[in-house]
Amino acid sequence: MTVVPSQPPGSEKDGAAAVPAARNGGPTGDGADPASATGSGRFLARAALVTAALSIAGSLLGLVRDQSLARLFGAGSDTDAFLVAWTVPEFAATLLIEDGLALVMVPAFSMALARRARGEAGDPVRALVAATLPRLCLAFAAVAALVVATAPHLVRALAPGLPDPGLAADCTRLTATCVLAFGLAGYCSAALRAHGRFLAPAAIYVVYNIGIVAAMFLLGGHWGVRSAAVGVAAGGCLMVAVQLPSLWREMTSRTPSPARTGSAAAQRPMQLALVAAVLVFALCRQSQVLVERFLASSLPSGAISHLNYAQKVAQIPMTLSLMVCTVTFPVVARALADGDTERARKRVERDLALASCVVLLGMCAVIACAPQMIEVLFQRGAFTAADTAATADVMRVYALGLLGQTLVGALLRSYFSAGRPSWYPAGVMAAGIAVTSLIGAATVQVWGVAGIAAANAVGITVTAALLLAGLRTTRRNTPYGVSIRLPQVLAELAAPVCAAAVATVAGAFVASRLQSPVAGLAAGVLTVTAVFVPLAWALGAQGPASALRSVRTVTRRLTHGRIH
Protein backbone atom coordinates (compact mmCIF):
# COMPACT_ATOMS: atom_id res chain seq x y z
CA MET A 1 0.00 0.00 0.00
CA THR A 2 2.80 2.38 0.77
CA VAL A 3 6.51 2.70 1.35
CA VAL A 4 8.23 2.54 4.71
CA PRO A 5 11.75 1.64 5.81
CA SER A 6 12.77 -1.96 5.18
CA GLN A 7 14.64 -2.03 8.50
CA PRO A 8 13.20 -1.30 11.98
CA PRO A 9 13.53 2.31 13.07
CA GLY A 10 16.70 2.85 14.99
CA SER A 11 18.42 -0.27 13.66
CA GLU A 12 21.43 1.70 12.48
CA LYS A 13 23.87 1.51 15.33
CA ASP A 14 26.58 3.85 14.20
CA GLY A 15 25.57 6.34 11.47
CA ALA A 16 23.93 9.67 11.54
CA ALA A 17 20.51 8.08 11.83
CA ALA A 18 21.31 6.99 15.37
CA VAL A 19 21.34 10.63 16.45
CA PRO A 20 17.85 12.14 16.70
CA ALA A 21 17.41 14.66 13.95
CA ALA A 22 16.02 17.17 16.41
CA ARG A 23 19.46 17.49 17.96
CA ASN A 24 21.25 18.30 14.78
CA GLY A 25 20.30 21.98 14.99
CA GLY A 26 20.02 24.36 12.11
CA PRO A 27 17.05 26.35 10.95
CA THR A 28 14.26 24.74 9.08
CA GLY A 29 13.93 25.87 5.53
CA ASP A 30 13.07 24.34 2.23
CA GLY A 31 16.13 22.21 2.33
CA ALA A 32 16.34 21.45 6.04
CA ASP A 33 15.07 18.56 8.09
CA PRO A 34 11.70 19.42 9.63
CA ALA A 35 12.56 17.43 12.71
CA SER A 36 15.09 20.05 13.69
CA ALA A 37 12.18 22.44 14.04
CA THR A 38 9.62 20.11 15.57
CA GLY A 39 12.12 18.97 18.16
CA SER A 40 12.90 22.51 19.30
CA GLY A 41 11.29 23.43 22.62
CA ARG A 42 10.59 26.95 21.41
CA PHE A 43 9.11 25.69 18.17
CA LEU A 44 6.85 23.28 20.04
CA ALA A 45 5.72 26.04 22.38
CA ARG A 46 4.88 28.36 19.53
CA ALA A 47 3.20 25.57 17.55
CA ALA A 48 1.16 24.69 20.64
CA LEU A 49 0.17 28.35 21.02
CA VAL A 50 -0.97 28.57 17.39
CA THR A 51 -2.81 25.26 17.71
CA ALA A 52 -4.40 26.38 20.98
CA ALA A 53 -5.59 29.67 19.52
CA LEU A 54 -7.17 28.03 16.49
CA SER A 55 -8.55 25.16 18.59
CA ILE A 56 -10.23 27.69 20.87
CA ALA A 57 -11.57 29.52 17.82
CA GLY A 58 -12.86 26.25 16.38
CA SER A 59 -14.44 25.29 19.71
CA LEU A 60 -16.10 28.70 20.04
CA LEU A 61 -17.45 28.40 16.52
CA GLY A 62 -18.63 24.91 17.45
CA LEU A 63 -20.58 26.51 20.28
CA VAL A 64 -21.98 29.05 17.84
CA ARG A 65 -22.96 26.13 15.60
CA ASP A 66 -24.74 24.37 18.47
CA GLN A 67 -26.32 27.62 19.63
CA SER A 68 -27.62 28.21 16.12
CA LEU A 69 -28.99 24.67 15.94
CA ALA A 70 -30.70 25.11 19.32
CA ARG A 71 -32.07 28.54 18.46
CA LEU A 72 -33.36 27.63 15.00
CA PHE A 73 -34.60 24.09 15.63
CA GLY A 74 -34.75 23.65 19.44
CA ALA A 75 -34.33 20.24 21.09
CA GLY A 76 -37.21 18.37 19.50
CA SER A 77 -37.74 15.59 16.98
CA ASP A 78 -36.22 17.49 14.02
CA THR A 79 -33.00 18.09 15.91
CA ASP A 80 -32.94 14.47 17.06
CA ALA A 81 -33.23 13.40 13.40
CA PHE A 82 -30.28 15.56 12.38
CA LEU A 83 -28.19 14.35 15.33
CA VAL A 84 -28.70 10.75 14.24
CA ALA A 85 -27.34 11.78 10.82
CA TRP A 86 -24.56 13.63 12.66
CA THR A 87 -23.25 10.17 13.58
CA VAL A 88 -21.67 9.99 10.10
CA PRO A 89 -19.40 13.06 10.46
CA GLU A 90 -18.65 12.11 14.07
CA PHE A 91 -17.42 8.69 12.95
CA ALA A 92 -15.60 10.16 9.96
CA ALA A 93 -13.83 12.76 12.10
CA THR A 94 -12.62 10.13 14.56
CA LEU A 95 -11.53 7.64 11.91
CA LEU A 96 -10.07 10.02 9.35
CA ILE A 97 -8.89 13.15 11.19
CA GLU A 98 -8.48 12.73 14.92
CA ASP A 99 -7.42 9.12 15.50
CA GLY A 100 -7.45 6.55 12.73
CA LEU A 101 -5.72 8.03 9.72
CA ALA A 102 -3.45 10.26 11.80
CA LEU A 103 -2.16 7.31 13.83
CA VAL A 104 -1.18 5.53 10.61
CA MET A 105 0.04 8.38 8.43
CA VAL A 106 1.97 10.59 10.88
CA PRO A 107 4.44 7.77 11.71
CA ALA A 108 4.57 6.81 8.01
CA PHE A 109 5.45 10.37 6.97
CA SER A 110 7.92 10.62 9.88
CA MET A 111 9.71 7.49 8.66
CA ALA A 112 9.72 8.80 5.09
CA LEU A 113 11.23 12.06 6.32
CA ALA A 114 13.87 10.12 8.24
CA ARG A 115 14.77 8.22 5.06
CA ARG A 116 14.92 11.49 3.13
CA ALA A 117 17.27 12.91 5.78
CA ARG A 118 19.57 9.90 5.24
CA GLY A 119 19.80 10.85 1.57
CA GLU A 120 18.00 7.88 0.03
CA ALA A 121 17.39 7.90 -3.71
CA GLY A 122 14.41 9.78 -5.05
CA ASP A 123 12.01 11.35 -2.58
CA PRO A 124 10.51 8.89 -0.07
CA VAL A 125 7.81 11.41 0.88
CA ARG A 126 6.52 11.77 -2.68
CA ALA A 127 6.70 8.00 -3.10
CA LEU A 128 4.55 7.61 0.01
CA VAL A 129 1.95 10.02 -1.35
CA ALA A 130 1.89 8.35 -4.77
CA ALA A 131 1.43 4.92 -3.21
CA THR A 132 -1.32 5.82 -0.72
CA LEU A 133 -3.38 8.83 -1.75
CA PRO A 134 -5.09 7.49 -4.93
CA ARG A 135 -6.13 4.25 -3.25
CA LEU A 136 -7.39 6.01 -0.16
CA CYS A 137 -9.46 8.42 -2.27
CA LEU A 138 -11.15 5.49 -4.02
CA ALA A 139 -11.85 3.84 -0.67
CA PHE A 140 -13.30 7.04 0.82
CA ALA A 141 -15.54 7.60 -2.22
CA ALA A 142 -16.80 4.01 -2.11
CA VAL A 143 -17.71 4.26 1.58
CA ALA A 144 -19.51 7.57 0.99
CA ALA A 145 -21.56 6.01 -1.81
CA LEU A 146 -22.40 3.04 0.42
CA VAL A 147 -23.67 5.36 3.18
CA VAL A 148 -25.87 7.21 0.69
CA ALA A 149 -27.35 3.96 -0.62
CA THR A 150 -28.06 2.48 2.81
CA ALA A 151 -29.13 5.64 4.68
CA PRO A 152 -32.65 4.43 5.68
CA HIS A 153 -31.28 1.15 7.02
CA LEU A 154 -28.55 2.98 8.96
CA VAL A 155 -31.13 5.24 10.58
CA ARG A 156 -33.27 2.29 11.65
CA ALA A 157 -30.23 0.54 13.10
CA LEU A 158 -28.91 3.64 14.92
CA ALA A 159 -32.20 4.90 16.38
CA PRO A 160 -35.08 2.44 16.00
CA GLY A 161 -37.42 4.59 18.09
CA LEU A 162 -36.90 7.82 16.12
CA PRO A 163 -40.21 9.64 15.33
CA ASP A 164 -39.13 10.87 11.86
CA PRO A 165 -36.72 8.39 10.23
CA GLY A 166 -37.30 9.86 6.76
CA LEU A 167 -35.85 13.23 7.76
CA ALA A 168 -32.89 11.51 9.41
CA ALA A 169 -32.25 9.49 6.23
CA ASP A 170 -32.25 12.67 4.10
CA CYS A 171 -29.75 14.31 6.45
CA THR A 172 -27.61 11.16 6.46
CA ARG A 173 -27.34 11.20 2.66
CA LEU A 174 -26.21 14.81 2.74
CA THR A 175 -23.63 14.26 5.48
CA ALA A 176 -22.22 11.16 3.72
CA THR A 177 -20.13 13.41 1.46
CA CYS A 178 -17.94 14.21 4.47
CA VAL A 179 -16.38 10.72 4.30
CA LEU A 180 -14.37 11.72 1.23
CA ALA A 181 -13.78 15.30 2.40
CA PHE A 182 -12.69 14.30 5.93
CA GLY A 183 -10.44 11.58 4.52
CA LEU A 184 -8.59 14.08 2.36
CA ALA A 185 -8.49 16.62 5.20
CA GLY A 186 -7.06 14.04 7.61
CA TYR A 187 -4.43 12.96 5.09
CA CYS A 188 -3.33 16.56 4.54
CA SER A 189 -3.21 17.18 8.29
CA ALA A 190 -1.02 14.13 8.93
CA ALA A 191 1.41 15.10 6.19
CA LEU A 192 1.68 18.72 7.30
CA ARG A 193 2.15 17.91 10.98
CA ALA A 194 4.87 15.41 10.19
CA HIS A 195 6.61 18.24 8.29
CA GLY A 196 6.27 20.55 11.31
CA ARG A 197 3.46 22.65 9.81
CA PHE A 198 0.60 23.22 12.25
CA LEU A 199 -1.23 26.38 11.18
CA ALA A 200 -3.36 24.98 8.36
CA PRO A 201 -4.27 21.70 10.15
CA ALA A 202 -5.31 23.65 13.24
CA ALA A 203 -7.65 25.83 11.15
CA ILE A 204 -9.79 23.02 9.73
CA TYR A 205 -12.50 23.10 12.40
CA VAL A 206 -12.71 26.88 12.13
CA VAL A 207 -13.69 26.76 8.46
CA TYR A 208 -15.80 23.61 9.01
CA ASN A 209 -18.02 25.26 11.60
CA ILE A 210 -18.23 28.45 9.55
CA GLY A 211 -19.63 26.38 6.69
CA ILE A 212 -22.28 24.76 8.89
CA VAL A 213 -23.39 27.99 10.57
CA ALA A 214 -23.60 29.83 7.24
CA ALA A 215 -25.68 27.05 5.68
CA MET A 216 -28.15 26.97 8.58
CA PHE A 217 -28.82 30.70 8.43
CA LEU A 218 -28.88 30.91 4.65
CA LEU A 219 -30.94 27.79 3.96
CA GLY A 220 -32.70 27.03 7.25
CA GLY A 221 -35.87 28.93 6.34
CA HIS A 222 -36.49 26.76 3.27
CA TRP A 223 -34.84 23.43 4.10
CA GLY A 224 -35.23 23.30 7.87
CA VAL A 225 -32.74 21.11 9.71
CA ARG A 226 -31.54 19.67 6.39
CA SER A 227 -29.60 22.91 5.99
CA ALA A 228 -27.28 21.81 8.80
CA ALA A 229 -26.51 18.63 6.85
CA VAL A 230 -25.73 20.73 3.78
CA GLY A 231 -23.39 22.75 5.95
CA VAL A 232 -21.54 19.58 6.98
CA ALA A 233 -20.88 18.82 3.31
CA ALA A 234 -19.72 22.38 2.59
CA GLY A 235 -17.58 22.53 5.72
CA GLY A 236 -15.80 19.31 4.77
CA CYS A 237 -14.78 20.80 1.42
CA LEU A 238 -13.45 23.90 3.20
CA MET A 239 -11.31 21.67 5.47
CA VAL A 240 -9.48 20.36 2.43
CA ALA A 241 -9.21 23.72 0.69
CA VAL A 242 -7.58 25.46 3.66
CA GLN A 243 -4.73 22.90 3.74
CA LEU A 244 -3.99 22.34 0.07
CA PRO A 245 -1.71 25.39 -0.47
CA SER A 246 0.60 24.44 2.41
CA LEU A 247 0.74 20.78 1.38
CA TRP A 248 1.45 21.73 -2.23
CA ARG A 249 4.40 23.84 -1.13
CA GLU A 250 5.80 20.96 0.91
CA MET A 251 5.41 18.45 -1.91
CA THR A 252 7.01 20.68 -4.56
CA SER A 253 9.82 22.29 -2.54
CA ARG A 254 12.16 19.26 -2.61
CA THR A 255 14.34 18.05 -5.46
CA PRO A 256 14.56 14.23 -5.53
CA SER A 257 18.02 12.88 -4.78
CA PRO A 258 19.86 11.12 -7.61
CA ALA A 259 19.80 7.34 -7.60
CA ARG A 260 22.62 5.60 -5.77
CA THR A 261 23.86 2.08 -6.12
CA GLY A 262 22.22 -0.35 -3.72
CA SER A 263 19.65 2.13 -2.37
CA ALA A 264 16.60 1.23 -4.41
CA ALA A 265 15.44 -1.75 -2.36
CA ALA A 266 14.72 0.04 0.91
CA GLN A 267 10.98 -0.36 0.54
CA ARG A 268 8.27 -2.68 1.77
CA PRO A 269 4.46 -2.46 1.86
CA MET A 270 2.82 -0.91 4.87
CA GLN A 271 1.61 -3.57 7.28
CA LEU A 272 -2.10 -4.08 6.82
CA ALA A 273 -2.21 -5.22 10.45
CA LEU A 274 -1.30 -1.66 11.51
CA VAL A 275 -4.14 -0.15 9.47
CA ALA A 276 -6.57 -2.77 10.78
CA ALA A 277 -5.52 -2.29 14.42
CA VAL A 278 -5.95 1.48 14.20
CA LEU A 279 -9.31 1.29 12.43
CA VAL A 280 -10.70 -1.29 14.84
CA PHE A 281 -9.68 0.88 17.79
CA ALA A 282 -11.20 4.01 16.27
CA LEU A 283 -14.44 2.16 15.45
CA CYS A 284 -14.66 0.79 18.98
CA ARG A 285 -14.05 4.22 20.46
CA GLN A 286 -16.62 5.94 18.31
CA SER A 287 -19.17 3.19 18.93
CA GLN A 288 -19.77 4.90 22.28
CA VAL A 289 -21.89 7.34 20.32
CA LEU A 290 -23.89 4.47 18.82
CA VAL A 291 -24.54 2.98 22.25
CA GLU A 292 -25.63 6.34 23.67
CA ARG A 293 -28.00 7.22 20.83
CA PHE A 294 -29.43 3.72 20.63
CA LEU A 295 -30.31 3.83 24.33
CA ALA A 296 -31.51 7.46 24.21
CA SER A 297 -33.81 6.80 21.24
CA SER A 298 -36.14 4.90 23.60
CA LEU A 299 -36.49 7.94 25.90
CA PRO A 300 -38.85 10.90 25.39
CA SER A 301 -38.24 13.31 22.51
CA GLY A 302 -35.27 15.61 23.10
CA ALA A 303 -33.14 13.12 25.05
CA ILE A 304 -30.63 12.75 22.21
CA SER A 305 -30.42 16.54 21.89
CA HIS A 306 -29.80 17.06 25.62
CA LEU A 307 -27.02 14.49 25.55
CA ASN A 308 -25.51 16.06 22.44
CA TYR A 309 -25.44 19.62 23.80
CA ALA A 310 -23.99 18.41 27.11
CA GLN A 311 -21.24 16.51 25.34
CA LYS A 312 -20.32 19.35 23.01
CA VAL A 313 -19.77 21.78 25.88
CA ALA A 314 -18.09 19.31 28.23
CA GLN A 315 -15.66 18.11 25.56
CA ILE A 316 -14.13 21.56 25.03
CA PRO A 317 -11.63 21.12 27.92
CA MET A 318 -10.66 17.71 26.53
CA THR A 319 -10.08 19.17 23.06
CA LEU A 320 -7.84 21.91 24.45
CA SER A 321 -5.94 19.49 26.67
CA LEU A 322 -5.08 17.23 23.74
CA MET A 323 -3.73 20.02 21.56
CA VAL A 324 -0.27 19.54 23.12
CA CYS A 325 -0.32 15.84 22.20
CA THR A 326 -1.35 16.76 18.65
CA VAL A 327 1.71 19.00 18.31
CA THR A 328 4.13 16.56 19.93
CA PHE A 329 2.89 13.37 18.22
CA PRO A 330 5.22 13.88 15.21
CA VAL A 331 8.08 14.52 17.67
CA VAL A 332 7.48 11.20 19.44
CA ALA A 333 7.12 9.38 16.11
CA ARG A 334 10.35 10.89 14.78
CA ALA A 335 12.23 10.08 18.01
CA LEU A 336 11.19 6.45 17.68
CA ALA A 337 12.10 6.45 13.99
CA ASP A 338 15.57 7.56 15.07
CA GLY A 339 15.73 5.01 17.91
CA ASP A 340 15.62 7.52 20.79
CA THR A 341 13.04 5.84 23.04
CA GLU A 342 14.15 7.74 26.16
CA ARG A 343 13.37 11.07 24.55
CA ALA A 344 9.99 9.72 23.46
CA ARG A 345 9.20 8.52 27.00
CA LYS A 346 10.04 11.87 28.58
CA ARG A 347 7.90 13.68 26.02
CA VAL A 348 4.90 11.40 26.65
CA GLU A 349 5.13 11.75 30.44
CA ARG A 350 5.32 15.56 30.20
CA ASP A 351 2.34 15.58 27.88
CA LEU A 352 0.29 13.42 30.27
CA ALA A 353 1.01 15.78 33.16
CA LEU A 354 0.11 18.93 31.25
CA ALA A 355 -2.97 17.49 29.51
CA SER A 356 -4.33 16.14 32.81
CA CYS A 357 -4.04 19.52 34.54
CA VAL A 358 -5.74 21.33 31.66
CA VAL A 359 -8.68 18.93 31.42
CA LEU A 360 -9.18 18.78 35.20
CA LEU A 361 -9.31 22.57 35.40
CA GLY A 362 -11.93 22.58 32.65
CA MET A 363 -13.83 19.72 34.29
CA CYS A 364 -14.07 21.73 37.53
CA ALA A 365 -15.59 24.67 35.68
CA VAL A 366 -18.05 22.46 33.78
CA ILE A 367 -19.34 20.70 36.91
CA ALA A 368 -19.40 23.79 39.12
CA CYS A 369 -21.10 26.11 36.62
CA ALA A 370 -23.16 23.72 34.46
CA PRO A 371 -26.60 25.44 34.83
CA GLN A 372 -25.18 28.91 34.27
CA MET A 373 -23.06 27.71 31.35
CA ILE A 374 -25.95 26.08 29.50
CA GLU A 375 -28.31 29.00 30.18
CA VAL A 376 -25.83 31.54 28.84
CA LEU A 377 -24.95 29.46 25.79
CA PHE A 378 -28.28 27.97 24.69
CA GLN A 379 -31.38 29.24 26.51
CA ARG A 380 -33.01 31.29 23.80
CA GLY A 381 -35.42 30.75 20.93
CA ALA A 382 -36.73 27.17 20.92
CA PHE A 383 -34.39 26.06 23.71
CA THR A 384 -36.36 26.36 26.96
CA ALA A 385 -35.50 26.55 30.67
CA ALA A 386 -36.51 22.88 31.00
CA ASP A 387 -33.98 22.01 28.30
CA THR A 388 -31.35 23.96 30.22
CA ALA A 389 -31.97 22.07 33.45
CA ALA A 390 -31.96 18.67 31.74
CA THR A 391 -28.80 19.41 29.75
CA ALA A 392 -26.92 20.79 32.77
CA ASP A 393 -27.70 17.68 34.83
CA VAL A 394 -26.43 15.42 32.06
CA MET A 395 -23.33 17.52 31.50
CA ARG A 396 -22.24 17.29 35.14
CA VAL A 397 -22.37 13.50 35.00
CA TYR A 398 -20.68 13.31 31.60
CA ALA A 399 -17.84 15.58 32.77
CA LEU A 400 -16.75 12.95 35.30
CA GLY A 401 -15.26 10.98 32.41
CA LEU A 402 -13.25 13.83 30.90
CA LEU A 403 -9.97 12.80 32.53
CA GLY A 404 -10.42 9.30 31.15
CA GLN A 405 -11.21 10.70 27.68
CA THR A 406 -8.05 12.81 27.75
CA LEU A 407 -5.81 9.99 28.96
CA VAL A 408 -7.12 7.68 26.23
CA GLY A 409 -6.39 10.28 23.55
CA ALA A 410 -2.91 10.99 24.91
CA LEU A 411 -1.89 7.39 25.59
CA LEU A 412 -3.11 6.06 22.26
CA ARG A 413 -0.35 7.89 20.41
CA SER A 414 2.25 6.03 22.45
CA TYR A 415 1.05 2.68 21.12
CA PHE A 416 1.21 3.65 17.45
CA SER A 417 4.03 6.23 17.29
CA ALA A 418 6.51 3.62 16.02
CA GLY A 419 4.27 2.74 13.08
CA ARG A 420 3.84 -0.86 14.22
CA PRO A 421 0.57 -2.74 14.86
CA SER A 422 -0.75 -3.20 18.39
CA TRP A 423 -4.09 -4.87 19.10
CA TYR A 424 -4.05 -4.12 22.81
CA PRO A 425 -5.69 -0.65 22.48
CA ALA A 426 -8.57 -2.09 20.45
CA GLY A 427 -9.06 -4.85 23.02
CA VAL A 428 -9.23 -2.51 26.01
CA MET A 429 -11.46 -0.08 24.12
CA ALA A 430 -13.84 -2.96 23.39
CA ALA A 431 -13.80 -3.77 27.10
CA GLY A 432 -14.67 -0.16 27.90
CA ILE A 433 -17.55 -0.22 25.39
CA ALA A 434 -18.86 -3.40 27.00
CA VAL A 435 -18.84 -1.67 30.39
CA THR A 436 -20.61 1.36 28.91
CA SER A 437 -23.26 -0.80 27.25
CA LEU A 438 -23.99 -2.89 30.33
CA ILE A 439 -24.21 0.05 32.73
CA GLY A 440 -26.21 2.12 30.26
CA ALA A 441 -28.75 -0.66 29.63
CA ALA A 442 -29.13 -1.17 33.38
CA THR A 443 -29.60 2.50 34.27
CA VAL A 444 -31.30 4.17 31.30
CA GLN A 445 -34.85 3.37 32.43
CA VAL A 446 -34.13 4.53 36.00
CA TRP A 447 -31.89 7.56 35.50
CA GLY A 448 -32.67 8.41 31.88
CA VAL A 449 -30.00 10.33 29.98
CA ALA A 450 -27.96 10.77 33.17
CA GLY A 451 -27.60 6.98 33.33
CA ILE A 452 -26.20 6.97 29.78
CA ALA A 453 -23.73 9.72 30.68
CA ALA A 454 -22.63 7.85 33.81
CA ALA A 455 -22.08 4.69 31.77
CA ASN A 456 -19.92 6.67 29.35
CA ALA A 457 -17.80 8.08 32.20
CA VAL A 458 -17.22 4.68 33.79
CA GLY A 459 -16.46 2.92 30.51
CA ILE A 460 -13.88 5.42 29.29
CA THR A 461 -12.21 5.54 32.71
CA VAL A 462 -11.80 1.75 32.63
CA THR A 463 -10.25 2.04 29.17
CA ALA A 464 -7.79 4.71 30.33
CA ALA A 465 -6.71 2.60 33.31
CA LEU A 466 -6.07 -0.42 31.07
CA LEU A 467 -4.09 1.67 28.58
CA LEU A 468 -1.89 2.99 31.40
CA ALA A 469 -1.28 -0.55 32.62
CA GLY A 470 -0.41 -1.71 29.11
CA LEU A 471 2.33 0.87 28.68
CA ARG A 472 3.86 -0.23 31.95
CA THR A 473 4.42 -3.73 30.57
CA THR A 474 6.13 -2.56 27.36
CA ARG A 475 9.84 -3.31 27.22
CA ARG A 476 12.10 -0.44 28.15
CA ASN A 477 14.70 0.89 25.70
CA THR A 478 13.01 -0.65 22.68
CA PRO A 479 12.61 1.19 19.36
CA TYR A 480 9.15 -0.26 18.84
CA GLY A 481 7.14 1.71 21.41
CA VAL A 482 7.08 3.88 24.51
CA SER A 483 7.11 2.76 28.14
CA ILE A 484 6.11 5.06 30.98
CA ARG A 485 7.02 5.02 34.66
CA LEU A 486 3.57 4.15 35.94
CA PRO A 487 4.10 4.92 39.67
CA GLN A 488 5.45 8.39 38.85
CA VAL A 489 2.61 9.06 36.40
CA LEU A 490 -0.07 8.02 38.91
CA ALA A 491 1.54 10.14 41.62
CA GLU A 492 1.55 13.08 39.22
CA LEU A 493 -2.16 12.57 38.48
CA ALA A 494 -3.12 12.40 42.17
CA ALA A 495 -2.20 16.02 42.90
CA PRO A 496 -4.45 17.73 40.29
CA VAL A 497 -7.30 15.29 41.03
CA CYS A 498 -7.29 16.33 44.69
CA ALA A 499 -7.07 19.99 43.71
CA ALA A 500 -9.98 19.50 41.28
CA ALA A 501 -12.27 18.12 44.01
CA VAL A 502 -11.71 21.17 46.22
CA ALA A 503 -11.96 23.65 43.35
CA THR A 504 -15.25 22.15 42.12
CA VAL A 505 -16.94 22.53 45.51
CA ALA A 506 -15.70 26.11 45.89
CA GLY A 507 -16.71 27.08 42.36
CA ALA A 508 -20.20 25.56 42.67
CA PHE A 509 -20.82 27.38 45.95
CA VAL A 510 -19.81 30.78 44.55
CA ALA A 511 -21.70 30.34 41.26
CA SER A 512 -24.92 29.42 43.06
CA ARG A 513 -24.86 32.58 45.21
CA LEU A 514 -25.49 34.91 42.24
CA GLN A 515 -28.82 35.32 40.46
CA SER A 516 -27.44 36.43 37.11
CA PRO A 517 -26.23 33.46 35.02
CA VAL A 518 -23.48 35.55 33.44
CA ALA A 519 -22.22 36.79 36.82
CA GLY A 520 -22.52 33.32 38.32
CA LEU A 521 -20.57 31.77 35.44
CA ALA A 522 -17.82 34.37 35.62
CA ALA A 523 -17.50 34.15 39.40
CA GLY A 524 -17.56 30.34 39.36
CA VAL A 525 -14.86 30.05 36.70
CA LEU A 526 -12.63 32.59 38.46
CA THR A 527 -13.06 30.79 41.77
CA VAL A 528 -12.25 27.41 40.22
CA THR A 529 -9.09 28.81 38.65
CA ALA A 530 -8.03 30.68 41.79
CA VAL A 531 -8.38 27.50 43.88
CA PHE A 532 -7.18 24.84 41.44
CA VAL A 533 -3.95 26.35 40.10
CA PRO A 534 -2.20 27.25 43.39
CA LEU A 535 -3.48 24.13 45.15
CA ALA A 536 -2.27 21.82 42.36
CA TRP A 537 1.07 23.62 42.40
CA ALA A 538 1.33 23.30 46.19
CA LEU A 539 0.58 19.58 45.97
CA GLY A 540 3.47 19.10 43.55
CA ALA A 541 1.71 18.81 40.18
CA GLN A 542 4.10 19.46 37.28
CA GLY A 543 1.42 20.50 34.79
CA PRO A 544 1.13 24.17 35.88
CA ALA A 545 4.92 24.60 35.87
CA SER A 546 5.15 23.02 32.41
CA ALA A 547 2.44 25.33 31.10
CA LEU A 548 4.22 28.36 32.53
CA ARG A 549 7.49 27.35 30.86
CA SER A 550 5.67 26.95 27.55
CA VAL A 551 4.16 30.41 27.83
CA ARG A 552 7.56 31.92 28.60
CA THR A 553 9.19 30.32 25.58
CA VAL A 554 6.80 31.93 23.12
CA THR A 555 7.83 35.37 24.37
CA ARG A 556 11.42 34.76 23.37
CA ARG A 557 12.86 34.96 19.91
CA LEU A 558 12.07 31.86 17.84
CA THR A 559 15.40 30.52 16.61
CA HIS A 560 14.18 27.35 14.89
CA GLY A 561 11.53 26.69 12.29
CA ARG A 562 8.49 28.25 10.73
CA ILE A 563 4.80 27.73 11.11
CA HIS A 564 2.89 28.15 7.88
Fold and architecture overview:
By secondary structure, the protein is mainly alpha-helical. It has a domain at 49-250. Helices cover 75% and strands 0% of the residues. The protein is built from 24 helices and no strands. Helix 16 runs antiparallel to helix 19 (402-416) and helix 18 runs parallel beside helix 21. The longest helix has 33 residues, at 41-73. The radius of gyration is 23 Å and the shape is globular. Residues 1-39, 259-269 and 551-564 have low confidence and may be disordered. This is Murein biosynthesis protein MurJ. The chain crosses the membrane at residues 43-64, 135-154, 174-192, 199-219, 225-248, 352-374, 394-416, 423-441, 447-468, 489-512, 518-539. It comes from Streptomyces cadmiisoli. Pfam families: MurJ. It is found in: Cell membrane.
* Sheet/helix structural class: mainly alpha
In whole angstroms, the N-to-C terminal distance is 29 Å
Order of helices and strands: HHHHHHHHHHHHHHHHHHHHHHHH
Radius of gyration: 23 Å
Silhouette = globular
Share of helix, binned: over 70%
**What's the total count of β strands?**
0
- State the major sheet: none
Strand content: under 5%
**H/I helix tally:** 24
Mean pLDDT: 79
Q: Residue ranges: pLDDT <50 for 5 or more in a row? A: 1-39, 259-269, 551-564
Summarize this entry quickly:
By secondary structure, this protein is an all-alpha fold. 75% of the residues lie in helices and 0% in strands.
